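Q: What does the assembled structure look like for these inputs?
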Amino acid sequence: MIQNYLPRYTYGTDSFEKIKEVCSAYGNKAVLLYGEKAYAACKDKLIPALKDLVILHEEVYGKEASYTNIDRILKEEVIKDCDFLIGIGGGKALDVTKVVGDKLNKPVFTIPSIASTCAAVTKISILHNDDGSFKEIYRLKSAPVHCFIDPEIIVNAPEKYFWAGMGDTMAKHVESVFSSKNDVLDFESNYGVTISKLCYEPILENGVKAYEDVKAHHVSKEVDDVIKSIIIATGSVSLSVNPDYNSALAHALYYGLTVREWMERKHLHGEIVSYGTLVQLLIDEQYGELRRVYDFNKAVKLPVCLKDLDLEKDDPLNDVLDATIVNQELDHIPYPISKQMVKDTILKLEDYK
Ligand SMILES: [Zn+2]
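A:
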């Protein structure tokens, strides 16, 4: 049996006006879970949009997508009576809402306040420990029912999330094409890998302008296209492909680089991954695509060399490479990649202009 939960969404600066109509198919008793800043950013538009619903309970999810926060929320007896939950915020707030909904067997709706990941539509939640370290991937019984995206809220959020989100999203195409290269794909994987082009071309074409517009808090066609790439296209890939095709070297190298404990304090996930995308393209001798992504990264100041990640050119990177090479994202790739190959490629990229 195959089930796919492709994203359903309402997009636009007036998208919240559809909340009542879309959610009321499930009842009218709602629980709201949100990030503090996200709610503050949404409330002027959200409160009128929710006025015909009964809000049984609302709560700030916490600061981390952790079981501590999930268990605390689940102790609220009143939430068992809700018809659905609405999560509002960034990836962590949405991941917490999705797990709470899953545990209660209640439908979940999402309102992303930033465009940085596809958490608003996917069927997994990335959970962390209270100290922020990675805990596990929680597989949900179903994906969020519907996602409401208001670009006006996204362009008023800190621009760094959009910037890093572009980097992470482009990797989805490069990595899924690479890891599926020599395989005969089933329909769903073929669908996902085909859609992955929409994680890539719209950003290469419109990303520079879109990023400028986001910095100016201005919604434009380019912004719309990139937000949909980051949330909807990436989500469609994640929901469709065999998990083997979700990531490859760009993410393996991200996990390797974050062995340096300061790395994630100084750099965002998608930022680090976007450097890995260049290494991924170069190791696979995709010179034409390397040119395009390198120039894009340079134009928006995503990393193109070790120095951009606060690493020295002569750093032996042994710890980084050891962790990269054993990372599970390299379990399914079209040919073996050795530590030396990655090292040589990183050095080659240092001289690329
Ligand atoms: Zn990623």
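The pocket of zinc ion is lined by residues 168, 251, 269, 273 (CB under 6 Å).
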